[in-house]
Design goal:
Elements (H helix, E strand, L loop, with lengths): L7 E4 L5 H14 L6 E4 L5 E4 L1
Antiparallel strand pairs: 1-3, 2-3
């Protein structure tokens, strides 16, 4: 069987967390993709699975 694989996006920024989350979400949406899962590790680290 074939297992579906998704790209993984890891990153960090010094920008404000809530505003940056909205920007990333909008950019992914405009690209026609969607977020399947995310983890907030701290105020500074977030992982998105596309």
């Amino acid at each position: 069987m074939f297992e579906r694989q998704f790209p993984r996006l890891d990153g960090f920024t010094k920008a404000e967390r809530i505003g940056m989350t909205a920007r990333v979400s909008e950019a992914i949406s405009q690209a026609g993709a969607w977020i399947t899962d995310f983890h907030l590790y701290s105020n500074m680290l977030r992982k998105h699975q596309l």
